[in-house]
Amino acid sequence: MSVKEAGDLAGRVLDEVQKAVVGKREALMLVLTAVLAKGHVLLEDFPGLGKTLAARSFARVLGLDFARAQFTPDLLPADLTGSFLYNQQRSEFEFRPGPLFTGLLLADEINRTPPKTQSALLEAMQERQVTVEGETFPLPEPFHVLATANPIEYEGTYPLPEAQLDRFLLRVSFGYPTGDEEYDVLVRRVERRREEVELDAVTDAAGLLAMQDAVETVRVDESVGRYCVALAAATRAHTDVLTGSSPRGSLGLLLAARGFAVLRGRDYVIPEDVKAVSRPVLAHRITVKPELWMTSASGSSVVDAVLAQVPAPSTLEARR
Amino acid sequence: MRARHTTSAVAAVLAAALLVVVLVTWAASIGPSDVLRGDGIAPRRTDPTQPATTYTPSATTPPTDGERLQQRTPDGDANPVVRAIAFFIEIATLVLALYLLWRLLRWARETYDARDRRVPAPDDVDFEVISAPQATDEILADAEPQLALLDVGTPRNAIVAGWHRFEVQALAAGFGRRHWETSSEFTLRFLDLVAADEHAVSVFAELYREARFSDHEIGEPARAAAREALSAIHAGLGAGTSGRPR
How many CB pairs under 8 A join A and B? Predict the structure, then answer.
């Protein structure tokens, strides 16, 4: 599949998802960007803004198997990975896979489960395999996690530590819809006369893998790659920052920018692609100094400041 | 505003620490006997009319004033152990004071350096003082050399050079590129200011991006397309100025 075909297909995926999720084209583009870049997404927003609907819609439209795991305080790692059960007919233990063995996993309210279970999921995200009782099981390809978290509730939650947040390629917020968009939600619901939205699969797992292969062919000029590195490094030197982005952040910038370029139908990355994904890629990898907790300083504000400091690639650099 | 709050908080903490250090230094320097004056709470006396069944004079009789004076050294200070402790406290306080002073000086120097490193806010944050007619005149005056750039060298370099010429024209018109701005962002902003032909600008911008950041083969058709787009931009601007009073 060529980059142009992948871009066209991605556009059709977005159009179809937007039948269910009204507006929010930019947020949906970012989610698809992460999927194309073989990454995982943390959807952090208030309840009722369509996070679960978006995840289910993407799974349906991308033709992936979908599983949802509600992360509760009593969820155990084995509930996610699966476990060995005794088969009396065969007189042997056999592995019963958990919800991790799917194409797209919705990890709902990931910060409500204890760190032990969180780390089991995050390890699977990173390694794309799980090990149960010494036996390793590879996860299906493609495998993507869309995790949701509620940013305002702290009682009974276990916030993800920075090292684990780093595993998410992007953190995306949907935000409240505009008045017109919200009214559109009501109108659509009334018109279809039922709760669920019927969506058509635009592609399948093989199609998504082909799109991801196309992303791998996208060219990144040296000046753009160095721009990614400079942005990540600048977060470490910012005066408001306790811990800046790791090198995984600059790599994430590059990978996400390539996915974004494909969505735009280009097989090369331009600096504007990097700027477009820098906030969702870098903001959650930055820890602001604790003494600034009462101020407006945040990971996003640091990224904005860094974007207004780091020199962009020059106009005439490439002489060939 | 936030920086000022942080500075105030740091200054308050430092002032409080300094006050404590001064007080401790003063207390250590004059010795505990002068800091804690007086005889303390008077010992409870027993009633002489009551029989002292468990009274043991050697263990509980409070010392007289004369006995207290005898415990002091001839120069009026506490005994040598107390003096040694006071001396060590004094030394420790001095070391602490020097350390805090060093930290204060280092913080002040870092703050000063950070202020030096801070990028000065551009004067044109909210509005551009440049006028559109001035920018248009700059572009039109440079139209021929800009078109000529598209004929020089490989198509890739020619397109990039032709696009870059807009930056030169903008600078001549007093419209500088911010260092964090990409070339496309800046040039599109500049051409938007002069209300250039949007379609032609879009075509030229795409050609520039492809020439600058892709490894595609950029051939003569791309050069011709860039020349056509640039001519359309110039023509559009020229048409706009034809009715303008000079």
Answer: 69
